[in-house]
Design a protein that fits this description.
This protein has 149 residues and is mostly helical. The protein contains 7 helices and 3 strands. A 3-stranded antiparallel beta sheet has the order 1-3-2. GO terms for molecular function: DNA binding; DNA-binding transcription factor activity.
Length: 149
């Protein structure tokens, strides 16, 4: 029936939106002991993959604009997890690198992904299947031209 097409529960965007919000809420209690927000957490994860990265590259990797990233990086720097350094070759470019404290934090954060799965009673295999499906969706979205409206 055509009227079912516009039901909220039939919208992929709504299911993704609500699931994302609810999962991020679950991270709060796991990250509070480290003084991290969810966005701070994913920033640290990105830096564990590639330390000494430009703000522009980091923003691209995390899908965050500079208006979101700049205050977040200031907070992480104040917490002693990162250092921001201007490039000697191009003063307009700022690079982010981990401090010793930031590197040591990784040992504690390694427990977070499993704790999150436990908090939602997810079997690791189900979590992996869901993650694979979401990666496929992201790949399709990246490869599909965006409509210009």
């Amino acid at each position: 029936m055509k009227s079912d097409l516009l039901k909220l529960d039939n919208q992929l965007c709504f299911a993704l939106y609500v699931a994302s919000k609810e999962v991020i809420k679950r991270y709060k209690s796991l990250l509070d002991p480290y003084g991290l927000t969810y966005t701070g957490y994913i920033t640290m994860l990105a830096l564990y993959e590639q330390d000494q990265v430009s703000i522009k590259e980091l923003g691209h990797k995390l899908y965050l604009d500079s208006g979101t990233l700049t205050p977040l990086l200031k907070k992480l720097e104040n917490q002693g997890y990162i250092i921001r350094q201007r490039s000697k070759e191009d003063e307009r470019q700022v690079f982010i690198r981990l401090t010793k404290t930031g590197v040591l934090l990784k040992e504690s954060l390694v427990k977070v992904p499993e704790a999150l799965l436990c908090s939602i009673n997810a079997d690791p295999k189900d979590g992996k299947r869901l993650l694979d499906s979401l990666h496929e969706l992201l790949h399709v979205l990246d490869e599909t031209p965006k409509s210009s409206s």
